[in-house]
Amino acid sequence: MLHTKIIDTQKEQIKISDAEQFIASSKFGANIYFTGTVRNLNDNKEVTGITYDSHDEMVIKSFEEIYNET
After folding, report:
1. Is residue 29 in some structural domain?
2. Where are the strands (E) in 1-70, listed by range?
3. Does a structural domain hold residue 50?
């Protein structure tokens, strides 16, 4: 069974503890996620935030393809 959880990044703050709780199960053989910290400067200019885009339908499709390969 494929388990995925997609949140609306425009409306919700991503909480690392929620991600860890979601994947913390002996049912899963591997858990991979990336975390990072926004740097202070970029090209000698102060960084005040970060934005990113995600295409949820494409993410789910990719997860399903990977899952079906196993």
Report:
1. yes
2. 41-42, 45-46
3. yes
